[in-house]
Amino acid sequence: MSGTARVSLTDEEYYDIEDALASTARGRAFLRARDQRLRVVAVDEVRRLTISVRDWTSSRIEKAGGEAHMQVLRRELQEMASYIQKSRGEIAAMRLKDDTADASGNSRIHFSMGELDAIVTSTERATSDILNASERIFSLASDMPTELEHVSAEITTLATDIMTACSFQDLTGQRINKVVNTLRYLEQRVAAMVEIWGVDENTKPTAAPSMDMRPDAHLLNGPARPGEGHSQAEIDALLGASAAAAVNGPEAQPPAAPTSIAHLNGAESPAAPTISQAAPPVPAPAAPAAPAAPKAAAPAPKAASSAQADIDKLFA
Amino acid sequence: MSITATQVLIVDDYATMRRILRNLLDQIGFKNVTEASDGADALSKLRGGNFGMVISDWNMEPMTGLQLLQEVRKDGKLKDVPFIMVTAESKTENVVTAKQAGVNNYIVKPFNAATLKQKIESVLGPVA
Question: Distance from A123 to chain B by nearest Cα, in Å?
Protein backbone atom coordinates (compact mmCIF):
# COMPACT_ATOMS: atom_id res chain seq x y z
CA MET A 1 0.00 0.00 0.00
CA SER A 2 2.96 2.29 0.36
CA GLY A 3 3.32 4.77 -2.42
CA THR A 4 -0.43 4.79 -2.95
CA ALA A 5 -2.40 7.95 -2.06
CA ARG A 6 -4.90 7.58 0.75
CA VAL A 7 -8.43 7.31 -0.62
CA SER A 8 -11.26 9.16 1.16
CA LEU A 9 -14.85 7.86 1.25
CA THR A 10 -17.95 9.91 1.00
CA ASP A 11 -20.77 9.26 3.47
CA GLU A 12 -22.72 7.47 0.76
CA GLU A 13 -19.82 5.21 -0.12
CA TYR A 14 -19.23 4.45 3.60
CA TYR A 15 -22.87 3.43 4.18
CA ASP A 16 -22.89 1.33 0.95
CA ILE A 17 -19.84 -0.65 2.12
CA GLU A 18 -21.31 -1.02 5.60
CA ASP A 19 -24.60 -2.27 4.12
CA ALA A 20 -22.67 -4.73 1.92
CA LEU A 21 -20.78 -6.12 4.93
CA ALA A 22 -23.95 -6.26 7.02
CA SER A 23 -25.66 -8.37 4.37
CA THR A 24 -23.52 -11.44 5.24
CA ALA A 25 -22.89 -13.18 8.59
CA ARG A 26 -19.10 -12.80 8.37
CA GLY A 27 -19.50 -9.18 7.40
CA ARG A 28 -21.64 -8.48 10.47
CA ALA A 29 -19.08 -10.33 12.68
CA PHE A 30 -16.39 -8.08 11.27
CA LEU A 31 -18.39 -4.97 12.07
CA ARG A 32 -19.01 -6.09 15.72
CA ALA A 33 -15.32 -6.86 16.26
CA ARG A 34 -14.33 -3.47 14.82
CA ASP A 35 -16.78 -1.57 17.06
CA GLN A 36 -15.51 -3.40 20.18
CA ARG A 37 -11.89 -2.56 19.41
CA LEU A 38 -12.70 1.07 18.83
CA ARG A 39 -14.48 1.26 22.24
CA VAL A 40 -11.46 -0.16 24.09
CA VAL A 41 -9.16 2.33 22.41
CA ALA A 42 -11.47 5.19 23.36
CA VAL A 43 -11.71 4.13 26.99
CA ASP A 44 -7.92 3.82 27.26
CA GLU A 45 -7.53 7.26 25.71
CA VAL A 46 -9.98 8.86 28.16
CA ARG A 47 -8.28 7.15 31.11
CA ARG A 48 -4.87 8.38 29.95
CA LEU A 49 -6.16 11.92 29.54
CA THR A 50 -7.82 11.88 32.95
CA ILE A 51 -4.63 10.78 34.69
CA SER A 52 -2.68 13.40 32.83
CA VAL A 53 -5.10 16.18 33.86
CA ARG A 54 -5.10 14.98 37.46
CA ASP A 55 -1.31 14.94 37.65
CA TRP A 56 -1.07 18.36 36.05
CA THR A 57 -3.63 19.82 38.50
CA SER A 58 -1.88 18.30 41.50
CA SER A 59 1.47 19.61 40.43
CA ARG A 60 0.08 23.10 39.95
CA ILE A 61 -1.59 23.10 43.35
CA GLU A 62 1.56 21.78 45.05
CA LYS A 63 3.74 24.32 43.34
CA ALA A 64 1.48 27.22 44.33
CA GLY A 65 1.35 26.07 48.00
CA GLY A 66 5.11 25.51 48.22
CA GLU A 67 5.82 29.01 47.05
CA ALA A 68 3.53 30.45 49.69
CA HIS A 69 5.31 28.46 52.39
CA MET A 70 8.67 29.56 51.10
CA GLN A 71 7.60 33.19 51.28
CA VAL A 72 6.49 32.82 54.91
CA LEU A 73 9.69 31.01 55.78
CA ARG A 74 11.82 33.63 54.07
CA ARG A 75 10.02 36.43 55.94
CA GLU A 76 10.45 34.63 59.27
CA LEU A 77 14.15 34.12 58.61
CA GLN A 78 14.58 37.77 57.74
CA GLU A 79 12.91 38.82 60.99
CA MET A 80 15.06 36.39 62.94
CA ALA A 81 18.19 37.73 61.30
CA SER A 82 17.09 41.26 62.18
CA TYR A 83 16.52 40.34 65.84
CA ILE A 84 19.87 38.55 66.01
CA GLN A 85 21.57 41.61 64.60
CA LYS A 86 19.83 43.85 67.14
CA SER A 87 20.79 41.48 69.96
CA ARG A 88 24.41 41.49 68.85
CA GLY A 89 24.35 45.28 68.81
CA GLU A 90 22.87 45.44 72.31
CA ILE A 91 25.44 42.99 73.65
CA ALA A 92 28.22 44.88 71.93
CA ALA A 93 26.94 48.06 73.60
CA MET A 94 27.04 46.39 77.01
CA ARG A 95 30.68 45.41 76.61
CA LEU A 96 31.55 48.59 74.79
CA LYS A 97 35.08 49.77 75.48
CA ASP A 98 34.75 53.51 75.52
CA ASP A 99 36.10 56.42 77.48
CA THR A 100 34.18 55.31 80.56
CA ALA A 101 36.12 52.07 80.68
CA ASP A 102 39.32 51.79 82.63
CA ALA A 103 42.81 51.89 81.22
CA SER A 104 42.84 48.17 80.53
CA GLY A 105 39.77 48.58 78.36
CA ASN A 106 37.41 46.56 80.47
CA SER A 107 33.67 46.68 80.04
CA ARG A 108 31.26 49.12 81.64
CA ILE A 109 30.17 46.46 84.10
CA HIS A 110 33.75 45.78 85.10
CA PHE A 111 34.34 49.51 85.37
CA SER A 112 31.34 49.87 87.68
CA MET A 113 32.68 47.13 89.93
CA GLY A 114 35.97 49.02 90.15
CA GLU A 115 34.10 52.17 91.13
CA LEU A 116 32.29 50.33 93.91
CA ASP A 117 35.56 48.86 95.16
CA ALA A 118 36.93 52.40 95.23
CA ILE A 119 33.96 53.50 97.35
CA VAL A 120 34.65 50.72 99.84
CA THR A 121 38.32 51.65 99.99
CA SER A 122 37.71 55.37 100.42
CA THR A 123 35.03 54.94 103.10
CA GLU A 124 37.31 52.50 104.91
CA ARG A 125 40.10 55.06 104.89
CA ALA A 126 37.78 57.87 106.01
CA THR A 127 36.36 55.71 108.78
CA SER A 128 39.83 54.85 109.96
CA ASP A 129 40.70 58.55 110.11
CA ILE A 130 37.54 59.30 112.11
CA LEU A 131 38.26 56.46 114.51
CA ASN A 132 41.81 57.71 114.99
CA ALA A 133 40.47 61.15 115.84
CA SER A 134 37.84 59.71 118.19
CA GLU A 135 40.42 57.66 120.04
CA ARG A 136 42.60 60.75 120.41
CA ILE A 137 39.60 62.67 121.80
CA PHE A 138 39.02 59.86 124.32
CA SER A 139 42.61 60.14 125.39
CA LEU A 140 42.51 63.92 125.73
CA ALA A 141 39.20 63.83 127.60
CA SER A 142 40.55 61.34 130.11
CA ASP A 143 43.52 63.66 130.78
CA MET A 144 41.36 66.68 131.55
CA PRO A 145 41.52 68.13 135.08
CA THR A 146 38.99 66.85 137.59
CA GLU A 147 37.24 70.21 137.81
CA LEU A 148 36.24 69.72 134.16
CA GLU A 149 34.98 66.20 134.73
CA HIS A 150 31.47 66.97 133.46
CA VAL A 151 32.93 68.42 130.24
CA SER A 152 35.20 65.42 129.89
CA ALA A 153 32.22 63.07 130.29
CA GLU A 154 30.23 64.89 127.63
CA ILE A 155 33.17 64.90 125.23
CA THR A 156 33.59 61.16 125.80
CA THR A 157 29.90 60.54 125.13
CA LEU A 158 29.99 62.54 121.91
CA ALA A 159 33.17 60.82 120.77
CA THR A 160 31.49 57.48 121.46
CA ASP A 161 28.54 58.56 119.29
CA ILE A 162 30.95 59.48 116.50
CA MET A 163 32.61 56.10 116.82
CA THR A 164 29.40 54.08 116.73
CA ALA A 165 28.21 56.08 113.73
CA CYS A 166 31.26 54.73 111.93
CA SER A 167 29.54 51.35 111.76
CA PHE A 168 28.00 52.72 108.56
CA GLN A 169 31.17 51.52 106.86
CA ASP A 170 30.34 47.91 107.68
CA LEU A 171 26.75 48.27 106.49
CA THR A 172 27.54 50.10 103.27
CA GLY A 173 30.32 47.62 102.61
CA GLN A 174 27.84 44.74 102.85
CA ARG A 175 25.40 46.48 100.55
CA ILE A 176 28.09 47.27 98.01
CA ASN A 177 29.30 43.67 98.10
CA LYS A 178 25.78 42.59 97.18
CA VAL A 179 25.75 44.96 94.22
CA VAL A 180 29.22 43.81 93.14
CA ASN A 181 28.07 40.20 93.24
CA THR A 182 25.05 41.08 91.10
CA LEU A 183 27.25 42.92 88.61
CA ARG A 184 29.63 39.95 88.50
CA TYR A 185 26.68 37.68 87.72
CA LEU A 186 25.54 40.03 84.93
CA GLU A 187 29.04 40.17 83.53
CA GLN A 188 29.16 36.37 83.36
CA ARG A 189 25.79 36.26 81.60
CA VAL A 190 26.90 38.90 79.09
CA ALA A 191 30.09 36.93 78.46
CA ALA A 192 27.98 33.83 77.84
CA MET A 193 25.78 35.75 75.37
CA VAL A 194 28.84 37.10 73.62
CA GLU A 195 30.04 33.51 73.24
CA ILE A 196 26.66 32.34 71.93
CA TRP A 197 26.04 35.20 69.51
CA GLY A 198 29.61 35.55 68.36
CA VAL A 199 29.91 39.24 69.13
CA ASP A 200 33.36 40.52 68.21
CA GLU A 201 35.16 43.83 67.96
CA ASN A 202 33.58 44.52 64.58
CA THR A 203 30.01 44.24 65.79
CA LYS A 204 28.44 47.68 65.68
CA PRO A 205 26.98 48.48 69.08
CA THR A 206 23.47 49.80 69.45
CA ALA A 207 23.63 53.49 70.26
CA ALA A 208 22.43 53.96 73.83
CA PRO A 209 20.77 57.25 74.69
CA SER A 210 22.82 59.32 77.12
CA MET A 211 21.25 59.49 80.57
CA ASP A 212 22.98 62.75 81.46
CA MET A 213 21.63 65.55 79.26
CA ARG A 214 23.79 68.34 80.68
CA PRO A 215 25.89 70.04 78.04
CA ASP A 216 29.13 69.33 79.93
CA ALA A 217 28.20 65.76 80.82
CA HIS A 218 31.21 64.46 78.92
CA LEU A 219 33.46 66.31 81.37
CA LEU A 220 31.74 65.01 84.49
CA ASN A 221 33.49 61.76 85.35
CA GLY A 222 33.41 61.98 89.12
CA PRO A 223 36.34 61.45 91.47
CA ALA A 224 39.46 60.06 89.84
CA ARG A 225 40.57 56.60 90.82
CA PRO A 226 44.09 55.90 92.10
CA GLY A 227 46.54 56.35 89.26
CA GLU A 228 44.20 58.66 87.36
CA GLY A 229 43.67 62.39 87.53
CA HIS A 230 46.19 64.93 88.80
CA SER A 231 47.40 66.22 92.13
CA GLN A 232 46.63 69.75 93.30
CA ALA A 233 50.31 70.56 92.79
CA GLU A 234 50.20 69.42 89.17
CA ILE A 235 47.05 71.42 88.54
CA ASP A 236 48.63 74.47 90.18
CA ALA A 237 51.59 73.97 87.91
CA LEU A 238 49.32 73.88 84.91
CA LEU A 239 47.57 77.05 85.91
CA GLY A 240 50.75 78.94 86.71
CA ALA A 241 53.76 78.07 88.81
CA SER A 242 54.00 81.56 90.32
CA ALA A 243 50.45 81.46 91.63
CA ALA A 244 51.07 78.05 93.19
CA ALA A 245 54.23 79.26 94.85
CA ALA A 246 52.39 82.25 96.29
CA VAL A 247 49.80 79.94 97.85
CA ASN A 248 52.05 77.14 99.08
CA GLY A 249 55.21 79.03 99.90
CA PRO A 250 58.68 78.53 98.45
CA GLU A 251 59.19 75.19 100.24
CA ALA A 252 56.15 73.69 98.54
CA GLN A 253 57.14 74.10 94.94
CA PRO A 254 55.01 71.99 92.62
CA PRO A 255 56.63 69.38 90.41
CA ALA A 256 57.64 70.27 86.88
CA ALA A 257 54.63 71.59 85.08
CA PRO A 258 53.18 69.50 82.29
CA THR A 259 53.99 71.23 79.03
CA SER A 260 50.45 71.61 77.82
CA ILE A 261 46.83 71.00 78.65
CA ALA A 262 46.90 68.16 76.15
CA HIS A 263 49.23 66.41 78.57
CA LEU A 264 46.30 66.10 80.96
CA ASN A 265 44.34 63.99 78.57
CA GLY A 266 47.20 62.33 76.74
CA ALA A 267 47.40 58.56 77.01
CA GLU A 268 51.19 58.82 77.09
CA SER A 269 51.24 60.86 80.28
CA PRO A 270 52.59 58.99 83.31
CA ALA A 271 50.07 57.83 85.85
CA ALA A 272 49.59 60.66 88.29
CA PRO A 273 48.33 60.36 91.84
CA THR A 274 44.87 61.60 92.60
CA ILE A 275 44.25 64.78 94.50
CA SER A 276 43.25 62.81 97.56
CA GLN A 277 46.53 60.89 97.45
CA ALA A 278 48.93 63.74 96.95
CA ALA A 279 47.44 66.83 98.44
CA PRO A 280 47.70 67.23 102.20
CA PRO A 281 44.38 67.84 103.92
CA VAL A 282 43.60 71.52 104.27
CA PRO A 283 42.27 72.46 107.71
CA ALA A 284 38.70 73.55 107.33
CA PRO A 285 37.48 76.70 109.02
CA ALA A 286 35.32 76.20 112.06
CA ALA A 287 31.84 75.46 110.85
CA PRO A 288 28.65 76.19 112.68
CA ALA A 289 27.02 73.23 114.36
CA ALA A 290 25.37 71.15 111.67
CA PRO A 291 22.18 69.23 112.23
CA ALA A 292 22.74 65.60 113.17
CA ALA A 293 23.21 63.34 110.18
CA PRO A 294 20.55 60.69 109.73
CA LYS A 295 21.44 57.26 111.05
CA ALA A 296 22.51 54.70 108.52
CA ALA A 297 19.67 52.42 107.62
CA ALA A 298 19.95 48.70 108.22
CA PRO A 299 20.32 46.67 104.99
CA ALA A 300 16.94 44.95 105.17
CA PRO A 301 13.81 46.94 104.29
CA LYS A 302 11.94 48.05 107.37
CA ALA A 303 8.81 46.08 106.54
CA ALA A 304 10.73 42.83 106.25
CA SER A 305 12.95 43.29 109.27
CA SER A 306 12.64 43.28 113.01
CA ALA A 307 13.23 46.38 115.07
CA GLN A 308 15.54 46.08 118.11
CA ALA A 309 12.45 46.40 120.32
CA ASP A 310 10.81 43.40 118.60
CA ILE A 311 14.00 41.39 119.02
CA ASP A 312 14.19 42.32 122.69
CA LYS A 313 10.75 40.77 123.24
CA LEU A 314 12.13 37.43 122.06
CA PHE A 315 14.87 37.59 124.69
CA ALA A 316 12.76 39.01 127.51
CA MET B 1 35.71 38.62 140.11
CA SER B 2 34.36 41.77 138.52
CA ILE B 3 32.22 41.28 135.43
CA THR B 4 34.41 43.69 133.50
CA ALA B 5 37.35 41.32 134.04
CA THR B 6 35.60 38.86 131.73
CA GLN B 7 37.66 37.89 128.72
CA VAL B 8 35.65 38.89 125.63
CA LEU B 9 36.07 37.62 122.08
CA ILE B 10 34.95 39.98 119.29
CA VAL B 11 34.29 38.27 115.94
CA ASP B 12 33.79 40.37 112.81
CA ASP B 13 35.27 40.32 109.32
CA TYR B 14 35.34 44.14 109.23
CA ALA B 15 38.35 45.53 111.05
CA THR B 16 36.49 48.81 111.52
CA MET B 17 33.67 47.07 113.34
CA ARG B 18 36.08 45.17 115.57
CA ARG B 19 37.78 48.45 116.40
CA ILE B 20 34.47 50.14 117.24
CA LEU B 21 33.41 47.25 119.46
CA ARG B 22 36.77 47.15 121.20
CA ASN B 23 36.55 50.88 121.95
CA LEU B 24 32.97 50.63 123.19
CA LEU B 25 33.86 47.68 125.41
CA ASP B 26 36.77 49.71 126.70
CA GLN B 27 34.40 52.56 127.54
CA ILE B 28 32.11 50.14 129.37
CA GLY B 29 35.08 48.76 131.31
CA PHE B 30 36.06 45.57 129.48
CA LYS B 31 39.83 45.72 128.97
CA ASN B 32 40.45 42.05 128.27
CA VAL B 33 39.35 41.84 124.64
CA THR B 34 40.54 39.58 121.83
CA GLU B 35 39.59 39.83 118.15
CA ALA B 36 38.85 37.20 115.48
CA SER B 37 38.10 37.86 111.82
CA ASP B 38 35.74 34.92 111.11
CA GLY B 39 34.03 31.93 112.71
CA ALA B 40 36.88 29.49 112.20
CA ASP B 41 39.42 31.89 113.67
CA ALA B 42 37.10 32.50 116.61
CA LEU B 43 36.54 28.80 117.26
CA SER B 44 40.26 28.20 117.31
CA LYS B 45 40.80 31.04 119.80
CA LEU B 46 37.87 29.94 121.94
CA ARG B 47 39.24 26.40 122.23
CA GLY B 48 42.65 27.71 123.14
CA GLY B 49 41.53 30.35 125.64
CA ASN B 50 39.25 31.01 128.56
CA PHE B 51 36.62 33.40 127.25
CA GLY B 52 33.61 34.54 129.23
CA MET B 53 31.64 36.09 126.36
CA VAL B 54 31.51 36.10 122.56
CA ILE B 55 30.24 39.08 120.57
CA SER B 56 29.97 37.95 116.97
CA ASP B 57 28.88 39.17 113.56
CA TRP B 58 26.79 36.76 111.48
CA ASN B 59 27.75 37.34 107.84
CA MET B 60 31.33 36.12 107.55
CA GLU B 61 33.32 33.70 105.44
CA PRO B 62 34.21 30.87 105.48
CA MET B 63 32.46 30.14 108.80
CA THR B 64 29.47 32.35 109.64
CA GLY B 65 28.48 33.58 113.07
CA LEU B 66 25.59 31.11 113.17
CA GLN B 67 27.91 28.21 112.38
CA LEU B 68 30.24 29.44 115.12
CA LEU B 69 27.33 29.58 117.56
CA GLN B 70 26.29 26.04 116.65
CA GLU B 71 29.84 24.77 117.09
CA VAL B 72 30.13 26.53 120.43
CA ARG B 73 26.88 25.03 121.69
CA LYS B 74 27.99 21.55 120.57
CA ASP B 75 31.33 21.84 122.32
CA GLY B 76 31.24 20.42 125.85
CA LYS B 77 33.74 22.97 127.14
CA LEU B 78 32.28 26.03 125.41
CA LYS B 79 28.53 25.32 125.37
CA ASP B 80 27.74 27.70 128.23
CA VAL B 81 29.75 30.69 126.97
CA PRO B 82 27.42 33.68 126.60
CA PHE B 83 27.02 34.57 122.93
CA ILE B 84 25.70 37.88 121.58
CA MET B 85 25.06 38.25 117.87
CA VAL B 86 25.74 41.75 116.47
CA THR B 87 24.60 41.83 112.87
CA ALA B 88 22.88 43.72 110.08
CA GLU B 89 20.68 40.67 109.44
CA SER B 90 17.44 41.86 110.97
CA LYS B 91 14.75 39.67 109.47
CA THR B 92 12.54 37.79 111.88
CA GLU B 93 13.68 34.43 110.53
CA ASN B 94 17.29 35.39 111.32
CA VAL B 95 16.47 36.26 114.90
CA VAL B 96 14.39 33.12 115.40
CA THR B 97 17.08 30.92 113.87
CA ALA B 98 19.75 32.45 116.10
CA LYS B 99 17.52 32.07 119.14
CA GLN B 100 16.91 28.43 118.32
CA ALA B 101 20.66 27.91 117.94
CA GLY B 102 21.16 29.19 121.47
CA VAL B 103 22.14 32.85 121.12
CA ASN B 104 21.86 34.80 124.38
CA ASN B 105 21.07 38.16 122.82
CA TYR B 106 20.87 39.84 119.46
CA ILE B 107 21.88 43.38 118.43
CA VAL B 108 20.98 44.90 115.09
CA LYS B 109 23.51 47.13 113.35
CA PRO B 110 23.71 50.07 113.50
CA PHE B 111 23.60 50.22 117.29
CA ASN B 112 24.80 52.60 119.97
CA ALA B 113 26.89 52.23 123.09
CA ALA B 114 23.86 52.15 125.37
CA THR B 115 22.31 49.24 123.47
CA LEU B 116 25.56 47.27 123.62
CA LYS B 117 25.91 47.87 127.34
CA GLN B 118 22.29 46.93 127.97
CA LYS B 119 22.62 43.62 126.09
CA ILE B 120 25.87 42.75 127.80
CA GLU B 121 24.26 43.40 131.19
CA SER B 122 21.30 41.24 130.24
CA VAL B 123 23.72 38.37 129.64
CA LEU B 124 26.42 38.88 132.29
CA GLY B 125 24.62 40.99 134.87
CA PRO B 126 25.05 44.65 135.88
CA VAL B 127 28.34 46.26 135.01
CA ALA B 128 29.67 48.43 137.81
Answer: 11
| Beta carbons of A169 and B16 less than 8 angstroms apart | yes
Subunit contact A305:B109, Cβ cutoff 8 A: no
ipTM greater than 0.90, yes or no?
no
Q: What is the per-residue DSSP string for B26-87? A: HHHT---EEEESSHHHHHHHHHHS--SEEEE-SS-SSS-HHHHHHHHHHSTTTTTS-EEEEE
- A136-180 tens-digit pLDDT: 999 999 999 999 999 999 999 999 999 999 988 888 888 898 888
A210 domain residue, yes or no:
no
Instruction: Tell me the CATH number at B24.
Output: 3.40.50.2300
CB atoms within 10 A of CB A291: 5
Instruction: Work out how many domains chain A is built from and give that number.
Output: 3
Residues A86-127: pLDDT tens digits? Answer: 887 777 776 655 544 444 445 778 888 888 888 888 898 999
Within a domain: residue B125? no
CA of B63 vs chain A CAs: smallest distance (Å)? 16
Position A126 in a domain: yes
Work out how many CB contacts closer than 8 A connect A with B.
97
Do the domain assignments include residue B95? yes
Q: In this structure, is residue B99 part of a structural domain?
A: yes
Q: What are phi and psi of B84, to 5 degrees?
A: -115, 125
